Amino acid sequence: MIEKNTKLKFTNARLLAVQAIYAHDFSDESWDKITSRVLLGEMGGQVLVDHDAREESIELPAADAELFTHIVKAYAEQAEEIDNAIRSSLSENIHFNDIEPTLRAILRAGIAEFYANPDLDAPIIINEYVDITRAFFDGAETKITNALLDRFGKILRG
Description:
The chain is mainly alpha-helical. It is 66% helix and 8% strand.
């Protein structure tokens, strides 16, 4: 059984990858610069939580730098293919650019991890990103994440 702290390092790596992909969408910084900023602790590594009607920033424990780097690199190298996989999974009345940016970053990171982590069972990847989605959204987004990553996992892993 994986130790809880090890699992948390992997979960935090995935969250940081989502944050890096999101940041890249809204900046003109290179992937190397964003990755470096995250690894140096200049970006990411915190979450905002509502506490008694006010937001608090909570520092996250250390993330697995290797997993984070592999996910971001996989997305950077295969962004077009990953984005096309998302586009092809959408219904006719939903356009790629209409997807909420955080959800789009989660989907991108999840699909990128299938490439970055080929030996990890698909259900583990899917569950991790569904949990991340649940941390940001209360609605149908978790079902969308689950369905899209499940579909992609079956295509990629057979």
